[in-house]
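ok so dumb question maybe but i'm new to this and my supervisor (M.) told me to 'just get the structure for Cryptochrome/DNA photolyase FAD-binding domain-containing protein' and walked off. so i did the thing. is this what she meant?? sequence i used:
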Amino acid sequence: MTRVADAAAYFCVFKPVLQGDRFDPDGAYVRRWVPELKALPTKLIHQPWRATPIGLASTGITLGTTYPQPMIDHSAGRERALAAYANIRKG
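this is what came out, is it supposed to look like this??
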C-alpha cells in the first residue's frame, strides 16, 4: 500500500484577497458572478469593505444591506487555524 501525504497542505491557508488579486486581477470573475460589486473600481473589487462610504454609495452598495459585511477577519482566522494545526501536531 502506497500512501502519499503532503505535510505542507496543513499549513496552506489561503488569503482570499491576495488570491483574487493574483488570479482575477481585473475583477472579471467577481463582476460576472457577484453583480452587486460590478460597479466598484478594480482596486476594490476584492475588498469592498475598504471603500469609502461615499465610494460605496456612488456604486449603489450599502455594506450590511445590499452586500454583506465581512464575515471574518482573514488575518485573525489564519492565526486561529495555524494555532489549531499546531495543537493537533502536538497530539
